Amino acid sequence: MRLALVLAFMFVSLLMGCERQEEFTPIPKRMKVLISINIKDGSVTFFDLKREKKYAQWELGQPIQGGVLLNNGSTLLLYGHELDRAYEYNLATGKMEKEWKTGKGIISALVSNDQQHLLLADQNQKAIRIFHMNGKENGSIKIGSQPLTLLQNSTGTRVYAIDFQDEKAAVIDMEKHQVTHTFSVPKFALGGLLREREQELWVGGHGSGSSVETVIHIYSLPSGTLMKTIPAPEMPVSFAETNEGIFALSHGSNTVRKWDHAGEEKASITVGANPFVMIGESHYLYVASYDSNEVTVIDGRTLQVVQRLTTGKGPFQLMIREEG
Question: Contact, 316 vs 304, CB < 8 A?
């Protein structure tokens, strides 16, 4: 009898533990938050940007690699190429509401500008798969091996998929769900910036071994022809454009560079330890350092560090959710 009670207690505790794993600290709708997805420990860190401090950290313990905000920022969908499904969480309750049966191989994601569709890049199927926001798949577009970088124009009618392995970028017509044309990019191309008014596409790159990427390639949007290159050693892999200028993060040299909107380089700063990703908004840049487990906040006007925020282990993606 005693053993039966102990086993029953252990079983109930296990169930309660599983339930707790699906419920985390709620993130208030009226809070503007910086979200860091950390891949070494499978966590997500939330920072209250108005109070400039950490608000919560979700310890999922899953091999997540990325995420996207859905439903105008009310939900967070998390995915990973080793996961056979994506997990949708309601930020306001901290609860998982839905599992998307995607299969393994998802390496990047993009929400359409009209918030009606989600594009998932699948390296196993070598395709961009299109999902409705209810989690149901609505078609796919065959494409290169590893389309890690996905960008869309302001109207959402075109998506640019830059492949990491196949030395090409594909232009997708989202109304017809088909590739209209491709153009050549360097192997191990990674990161990009779409500048519609200037009709430019800036493409970064990682390189491999002793042959690391040292320049940014700038292509014509209408034709896909290479217009020029600009130095940005080493490994320019992440970009941002704000009212303060154009910024590129060079992962290999731990450097953020700034250009004015005419493309003239103005300043640079060394930052972080093994930084992988940068985002920008308003006057600030946010740079995630993979090895030092922190986000460095930089003033985009002066290119000076103003704050450091501690994340989970291995911050790999950043996003900002505006207050509701």
Answer: no
Residues of the chain with pLDDT under 50: 1-20
By three-state DSSP, how is residue 314 classified? Answer: coil
Helix, strand, coil % (nearest 5) of the chain? 5, 55, 40
Strand-pair partners of 128? 121, 141
Distance CA 25, CA 18 (A): 16
Q: Give the tokens for residue 12.
A: 């109930």
d(CA 244, CA 273) in angstroms, rounded, equals 24
Cα 67 to Cα 48: distance, rounded to the nearest angstrom: 18
User: What one-character DSSP code corresponds to residue 155?
Assistant: T
Q: How far is CA 64 from CA 165, 184, 266, 313, 321, in A?
A: 22, 31, 37, 12, 19
User: Where do the DSSP E strands lie in 115-235?
Assistant: 117-122, 127-132, 137-142, 149-152, 158-162, 168-173, 178-184, 189-195, 200-205, 207-208, 211-212, 215-220, 226-231
Q: Which of 173, 177, 251 is nearest to 214 (CA)?
A: 251
Q: Which residue has the tokens 């103003």?
A: 306
Mind listing the pLDDT tens digit for each residue in 73-94?
Answer: 999 999 999 999 999 999 999 9
Q: What digits encode the pLDDT tens for the residues 262-312?
A: 999 999 999 999 999 999 999 999 999 999 999 999 999 999 999 999 999
Pairwise CA distance, residues 141 & 250, whole Å: 31
197 vs 194: CA distance, rounded Å: 9
Residue 26 has a pLDDT of: 98
Measured CA to CA, the distance from residue 316 to residue 314 in angstroms comes to 6
